[in-house]
Amino acid sequence: MDPMSSLPKGALSGPGHSTRSGFIALAGRPNVGKSTLTNALVGSKVAIVSDKPQTTRRAIRAVAGGDDWQLILVDLPGVQRPRDALTERMQRRVEAELDEADGCLMVLNAEQGIGPGDRFIAQLLKGARVPIVIAVNKLDRANQAKTVTVLKEAEELGVAEAIFPVSARKGTGVEALLAHLVSLLPSGPFYFDPRQRSDQSESVLLAELVREQVLIRTREEVPHAVEVEIEDISETDGRFRIDAAILVETDSQKGILIGSGGRMIKAIGTGARRAIERELGGHVHLALQVRVRRHWRADERVLDRLGIE
Ligand SMILES: Nc1nc2c(ncn2[C@@H]2O[C@H](COP(=O)(O)OP(=O)(O)O)[C@@H](O)[C@H]2O)c(=O)[nH]1
Ligand SMILES: [Mg+2]
């Protein structure tokens, strides 16, 4: 999907300004579809998606852009009660990002409706000095009556200057939302090379594609306990070899990831290889290893090395 293709050019840059660019911070409960919406707005996969909590650990800057505008979306890690060094860092990051943004996009879930978690976030945003836009997502999962109710409740939150019903999965309404967000950006030079789609290094993106496959296939404490490190990438004649380690905290988690007869690690490897091949556009040999590294989540040095700020 290319959400940009039919945007009128004149609508995107004010008179007398050559380019506009800026940052939009994404807020919303876990699982409302922030990462999916980021990918839809950018028009390519920059953020991994699953229905597990803490899928998004790093504050990715995703870059949507046209000829004369650049909109940088900051997909914030989920707001949670601090429990360990990892969640504490995530919390600090959320506050810092809002401070630097030109606008905030709060995402709600039309399927579930608005609950105490959404109201809590809306309350936090009330103090923000930036314009707030609401996207009511998962329109494809709500009938008309439900949609009308949620849109009304969204308005009653009293924080948004504009509200857009969308389906990030299907692309419905994404173009109108994007045009509005672009209209909020100040004029100014681009922050990123226009060919860039995010600020993630290639190895972090590839590690995330492996982690996404783990998240899709595991439950309970396992998703939260897993991290992935790319140890080596090499290319010969358009064929890639990638060595990656999946880090877990206990032997039992390692057992789960390997699975009986190695079936689980095989399924993770096949899924990840396909996703990486789509990203790199070539044949990939993916060598995966599962390693136990106890308490990596509490180890600031490991977090630094993995790029989790
Ligand atoms: N049906 C439907 N599912 C969606 C939509 N957007 C996201 N999802 C699903 O909702 C789950 C959470 O999405 P994600 O983008 O990771 O949410 P985040 O935690 O807010 O970043 C995933 O299973 C997505 O596939 C949508 O528009 N429609
Ligand atoms: Mg996310």
Helices and strands in order:
Layout lengths: L19 E8 L6 H9 L17 E6 L3 E7 L9 H16 L2 E7 L6 H11 L5 E6 L6 H13 L5 E4 L8 H10 L18 H16 L4 H4 L1 E10 L2 E10 L2 H8 L4 H18 L2 E10 L7 H6 L4
Parallel strand pairs: 1-3, 1-4, 4-5, 5-6, 8-9
Antiparallel strand pairs: 2-3, 7-8
Largest sheet: 6 strands, mixed
Q: So what's the CATH class of the largest domain?
A: Alpha Beta
Termini Cα gap: 32 Å
The CATH architecture of the largest domain would be 3-Layer(aba) Sandwich
Q: What is the β-strand count?
A: 9
DSSP helical segment count: 10
Q: Report the order of strands and helices.
A: EHEEHEHEHEHHHEEHHEH
Average pLDDT level: 87
**CATH superfamily placement of the largest domain:** P-loop containing nucleotide triphosphate hydrolases
Number of domains: 2
Q: Which stretches of 5+ consecutive residues score pLDDT under 50? A: 1-16
Radius of gyration: 20 Å
Protein structure class? alpha/beta
**What is the CATH topology descriptor of the largest domain?**
Rossmann fold
Which ions, cofactors or small ligands are bound in this entry? guanosine-5'-diphosphate, magnesium ion
Spatial ordering of strands, largest sheet: 2-3-1-4-5-6
Please give the share of residues in helix: 25-40%
Q: Strand-residue fraction? A: 15-25%
The oligomerization state is: single chain
Taken from the alpha-carbon principal axes, the silhouette is globular
